[in-house]
Amino acid sequence: MKIIVDAMGGDNAPESAVWGGALAAKQFGEEVVLVGREEEVRAVLQQKGMADTPGVSIVNAVDVVDMHDDPATVLRRKPDSSMAVAFKMLKSGEGDALVSAGNTGALLSGATLYGGRIKGIRRGALAPVMPCASGQVMLCDAGANTECTPEYLLQFAFLGSLYAEKINGVKNPRVGLVNNGTEDTKGDTLRKETYKLLRAAGDAGRLNFVGNVEGSMVPLGACDVAVCDGFAGNVMLKTIEGVAKFMAGEIKKVFYRNLATKMAYLPCKKGMDEFRDLFNQDKIGGAPFLGIAKPVIKAHGSSNEMAVMNAVRQAIAYTKSGMIEAVSENIEYMTVASEG
Fold first, then answer.
1. What's the predicted TM-score (pTM) here?
2. Is the peptide bond before 54 cis (omega within 30 degrees of 0)?
3. CA–CA distances in Å: residue 92 to residues 127, 152, 223, 228
4. Where residue 275 falls among pLDDT bands split at 50, 70, 90?
5. Domains plus CATH for the chain?
6. Alpha carbon 147 to chain centroid distance?
7. How far is CA 321 from the centre of its chain?
8. Average pLDDT, integer, range 10-39
9. Residue 63, helix vs strand vs coil
10. 112 to each of 58, 130, 250, 305, how far by Cα in Å?
11. In this structure, how many other beta carbons lie within 10 angstroms of the beta carbon of residue 79?
């Protein structure tokens, strides 16, 4: 298997992307292709003592997509960028999956343009996981589609459920629709119409639909897959991340208040370390673009080498899972017949 890594994508590129990609090749025994400015890539490998790592190769790409570029046009305007070259390789079959910590919008555009959507899928969805009381919950969508139809959300539900089962190992994943109340009459037109579709899929035994879930219920483990439009999902994700950082900071202030509280911290240190680990995105690696015909993993922009290594691990698991084939097999249940 060959995983393509955008070596110039992300805030810490090329160091983190190159180092993480080489670590992944060494750790997982699969081929990794580092796409980026060759001299800079080789310099990082040399610096980290990984110049001769088996399974690592380099493809030169002289340009870079940065976070300020227009996502809709940048791959056409910068055809020699590391991201554009990586996507061309993916499309031509020179790699099995792609990992990048670069511009999210450009990555989605490239995934759709070069990877293509699975036949019948209307929109690709960004689906990160976050910690919750029952383990982990996947948000689908979390930023790729700010305007959605009920059919999009129905497809997000199936995509998230299949991924949770096949890659995350969740048996019969519980699917919830993020809404402003648990009653089936709650929400705007989008939520009400989506509820009907998800309830029908649940009654038919195709989804384990648990109904509407409020935002406060998602971190408490009410579902394994939280279905929402990209606007609501992104706001929820960023809010939870912000609250987690705020709480961690306030707890730290309590322990650092005086000598007595500092002493009291010592027996709590292991538990506090475990608490911080819950929100350590580096261990997860990244978020998949679901519904795309070839695996594309978005690592977070500030990824370090461990995050990139785990994003490659995620790409390997996705490629081996049969997820894309499973979506194709279930596509008839994921579409809404047009009236007329």
1. 0.90
2. no
3. 25, 28, 38, 33
4. confident
5. 1-121+291-327 (3.40.718.10), 125-280 (3.40.718.10)
6. 19
7. 16
8. 96
9. strand
10. 25, 25, 42, 27
11. 12
